[in-house]
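PROTEIN DESIGN WORKSHEET
SECTION A - STRUCTURE
LENGTH: 210
TOKENS:
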């Protein structure tokens, strides 16, 4: 399918300073910016920057950023699921994954994550997709936030829910390995019934529980 991308932008105030929330951002623009030293949830900042630039260059790839001047203080990524994951097995060109969302600690408390999602879904093209997010507690910053795993789960549900994402049941082993883990998804308004059925099938491999 085609992958049209419509740019949007807004500005918000946070405890760490004002941020511009914008995207989708092209890879050549991302290369001009610096990743905040606190963006370490997935890998060291420079390596994560290169990964994000790579995603932005994919036909379906979308990167929304929060930046303070030339420093990226937060971002969210969208791309097709990893071929090794079950979500890719349905071979759906209208299923994409919210692969990562991260905000540097000094800028938290200003609804940055919600703003990143808001800009993401201002693009009408997102209504053509099923957007999934696999939430694993081991990616959550429990230490710095001082939240319990259950409190953090509720925070994530509210953030994702702000753009219409909901919890969906699944028998995926990684999701079911801990009760705090969850599959969340948003089914776009133009997604056809066949695609929804394929999504339902890939959520459950053990048909006994379907």
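SECTION B - SEQUENCE
RESIDUE ASSIGNMENT:
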């Amino acid at each position: 399918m085609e992958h049209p991308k419509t740019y949007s932008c807004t500005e918000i105030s946070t405890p760490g300073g004002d941020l511009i929330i914008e995207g989708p951002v092209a890879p050549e623009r991302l290369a001009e910016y610096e990743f905040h030293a606190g963006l370490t949830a997935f890998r060291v900042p420079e390596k994560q920057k290169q990964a994000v630039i790579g995603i932005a260059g994919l036909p379906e790839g979308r990167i929304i950023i929060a930046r303070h001047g030339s420093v990226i203080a937060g971002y969210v990524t969208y791309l097709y699921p990893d071929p090794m994951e079950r979500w890719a097995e349905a071979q759906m060109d209208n299923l994409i994954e919210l692969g990562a969302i991260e905000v540097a600690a000094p800028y938290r408390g200003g609804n940055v994550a919600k703003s990143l999602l808001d800009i993401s879904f201002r693009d009408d093209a997102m209504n053509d997709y099923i957007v999934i997010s696999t939430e694993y507690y081991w990616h959550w910053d429990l230490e710095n936030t001082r939240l319990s795993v259950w409190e953090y789960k509720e925070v994530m549900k509210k953030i994702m829910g702000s753009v219409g994402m909901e919890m969906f049941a699944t028998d995926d082993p990684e999701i079911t390995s801990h009760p705090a883990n969850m599959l969340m998804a948003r089914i776009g308004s133009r997604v056809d019934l066949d695609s929804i059925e394929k999504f339902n099938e890939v959520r459950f491999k053990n048909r006994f529980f379907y």
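SECTION C - NOTES
The chain has a mean pLDDT of 94.
Residues 8-204 form a domain with the Aminopeptidase fold (CATH 3.40.630.30).
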